């Protein structure tokens, strides 16, 4: 996500934000956004076991690990190298384990990690935190983004038979806890940890016993980990109490809104949409727009969601992306256009390397052919 430049073009109140939204999330988020615009210094964007096995009290209070995280996330490295080196040096995973997680041969991963180390040496980086505050802020942004990538790969694997890799998700949470222990007052660090906990709380409900994907609307919410949800919600509230507003804080607020609903029908979609609208304005990204389209469809009907999705058709980053295809299929199905929905489900299934997602999308297509 690129840094947002709001300036005077932002109209307030934000279109789509209810005057009296249920709950605290939009109210607090909106206030933080107004504060940022008025003060004209919007912050840079920051980018199976369960997380309960790594409770806050068990996180080691060690500056050395944080230093190592900063070193592994050196800006001279590619994102793939940053992730691999972080998992190897900080997470303690073996090269073979990392290779299996990302479905590449072990020699390939070993070479990637080796090159990353050589590049850091060539850059002359010592084992120390950057001294200048702007450089520290930038490096922290990279650290958070790397942890976000590790968690996302663990939560929904981009390829392979299984939907998720609990070991990667749990390791990302452990490292996020460690960073939060060292930087408890940073709102984006707090927001990222909250987002991970609130999302990971749903893990046991996301698949059937045979490993088939269960959409959010169909999940048995009694399987959600309420302890993680309570902790994540508290952290999300804390993160929004600061003077600035960032992407992880907003994503945590969205996750908290979903967690607050005891059934899918009780989801406050107006609030979810409003939060995505704010997120889209401070950190524009096609995936944010896609998610906003889904929320808009729930709030205002599938036709409205499809109209918003159409704005992504010319975005080269989304060309042929399975998430855009599957979202369109879902909304087309809601309009009653079974033929078009069937075609898009089939296209989406072919476009993803995740076997679990393929099975789910093919099953949705087959259902429309009955």
Automatic annotation (TrEMBL):
Residues 69-120 form the RNA polymerase sigma factor 70 region 4 type domain. Residues 139-239 form the DUF6596 domain. The keyword Transcription applies. Coiled coil: none annotated. It holds the Pfam family Sigma70_r4_2. Keywords: Sigma factor, Transcription, Transcription regulation. Residues 38-58 are annotated as: Disordered. InterPro entries: DUF6596, RNA_pol_sigma70_r4_t2, RNA_pol_sigma_r3/r4-like, WH-like_DNA-bd_sf. Transmembrane segments: none annotated. Residues 38-48 have a biased composition (Basic and acidic residues). Belongs to the sigma-70 factor family. ECF subfamily. This is Sigma factor-like helix-turn-helix DNA-binding protein. It comes from Saccharothrix mutabilis subsp. mutabilis.
